[in-house]
């Protein structure tokens, strides 16, 4: 310990920073932070204790907000943030998401926005819309955004976002019913996009299928050009950002939907989209990412193990923190 204590505080802070990334066992404040007073002081004074923050429930969100508000900006550098607000069945009253949303927005606005690279959030969802909309400040460093039960739509907030997941979405904002427009608004330089939402009305789903068809055809043509094969007839391109390399979609069926003509149109469009994916698999080499993946749909109201879902969310968040990819399919 004497040898460690003789090291400059700046070097110790760098070492502790590397340790803080791995939160697989426990937060650094409850491991090395309790080892000795020196470690605890360095962790708190340098802001290492908030670099990788996991907040579960509104009570913890409130405590964290009050603590971070008392700090100078140099100790508010949150690099990665995971917030989980679970359903009422867990014992916490979350019938009103507005309180949790206000806390979340206050936290994001209070931390140093120039350092936030990863943001994962899970909110409970009801049986009817509209989907909770999260208002973000400008987060120029953000590269990974994973939202469950809420959505973002404000432009020019995340210009460098590369990977976006929108899960358990009830509906799209009225001004962004077209997926390419939504992606352009949120993340003009996106490379990976995943969305899981309730099956939209036939008019919207038809547009979605057309947009994804154009994207898939353009991706297949580009793949052939890279391999030197004849690319086939020219295509007008697709409406998504040119940087997009992979799209994963899943549409969940409303539980009260009748088997009428409208429902038939939805199922037909969904079937056609699956056929597109099967066709595209012929152009993908072994080990390559498929440009478009359609996941099996789930019936709304089906039993969901929220505890298991949260465990997987935490696992993905920790994977991203150490430079690995989250699970996309």
The poorly predicted ranges are: 89-94
Query: What is the H/E string?
Result: HHHEHEHEEEEEHEHEHEH
Assembly level: single chain
Whole-number count of domains: 3
The total of helices stands at 9
The main β sheet shows up as:
8 strands, parallel
Strand content: 5-15%
General shape: globular
- What would you call the structural class? alpha/beta
- Helix content bin: 25-40%
* Spatial ordering of strands, largest sheet: 1-2-3-5-7-8-9-10
Textual characterization of the structure:
By secondary structure, this protein is of the alpha/beta class. The protein has 3 domains: 1-49; 51-193 and 299-329, no CATH class; 199-238 and 247-290, no CATH class. It contains 9 helices and 10 strands. The strands form 2 sheets. The chain has an 8-stranded parallel sheet, sandwiched between helices. It has a two-stranded parallel ribbon with strand order 4-6. Helix 5 links the parallel strand 2 and strand 3. It is globular. Residues 89-94 have low confidence and may be disordered. Residues 1-55 form the F-box domain. This is F-box domain-containing protein.
Question: Helices and strands in order, then pairings?
Answer:
Blueprint: H1 2-5, H2 9-21, H3 37-46, E1 52-56, H4 58-69, E2 80-84, H5 97-110, E3 118-122, E4 132-133, E5 144-148, E6 150-151, E7 163-169, H6 179-186, E8 192-198, H7 202-227, E9 246-252, H8 261-280, E10 292-294, H9 306-321
Helix pairs in contact: 2-3, 4-5, 7-8
What would the keywords be for this entry?
329 residues; alpha/beta; 3 domains; eight-stranded parallel sheet; two-stranded parallel ribbon; 10 strands; 15% strand; F-box domain-containing protein; F-box_dom
């Amino acid at each position: 310990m004497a040898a460690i204590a003789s090291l400059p505080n700046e070097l110790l802070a760098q070492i502790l920073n590397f340790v803080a990334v791995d939160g697989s066992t426990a937060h650094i404040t409850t491991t090395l932070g309790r080892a000795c007073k020196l470690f605890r002081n360095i962790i708190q004074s340098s802001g290492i204790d908030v670099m990788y923050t996991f907040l579960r429930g509104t009570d913890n969100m409130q405590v964290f907000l009050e603590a971070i508000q008392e700090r100078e900006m140099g100790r508010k550098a949150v690099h990665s943030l995971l917030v989980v607000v679970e359903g009422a069945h867990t014992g916490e009253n979350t019938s009103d998401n507005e309180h949790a949303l206000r806390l979340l927005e206050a936290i994001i606005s209070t931390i140093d926005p120039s350092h936030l690279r990863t943001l994962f959030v899970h909110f409970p969802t009801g049986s009817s819309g509209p989907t909770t909309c999260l208002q973000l400040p400008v987060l120029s460093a953000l590269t990974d955004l994973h939202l469950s039960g809420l959505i973002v739509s404000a432009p020019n907030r995340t210009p460098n976002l590369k990977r976006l997941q929108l899960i358990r979405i009830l509906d799209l904002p009225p001004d962004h019913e077209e997926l390419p427009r939504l992606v352009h608004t949120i993340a003009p330089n996106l490379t990976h996009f995943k969305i899981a939402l309730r099956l939209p009305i036939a008019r919207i789903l038809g547009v979605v299928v057309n947009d994804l068809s154009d994207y898939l055809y353009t991706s297949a043509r580009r793949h052939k050009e890279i391999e030197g094969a004849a690319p086939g007839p020219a295509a007008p391109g697709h409406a998504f950002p040119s940087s997009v390399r992979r799209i994963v979609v899943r549409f969940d069926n409303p539980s009260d939907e009748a088997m009428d003509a409208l429902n038939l149109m939805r199922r037909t469009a969904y079937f056609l989209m699956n056929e597109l994916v099967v066709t595209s698999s012929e152009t993908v080499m072994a080990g390559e990412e498929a440009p478009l993946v359609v996941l099996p749909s789930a019936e709304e109201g089906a039993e969901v193990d929220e505890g298991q879902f949260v465990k997987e969310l935490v696992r993905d968040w920790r994977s991203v923190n150490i430079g690995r990819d989250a699970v996309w399919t």
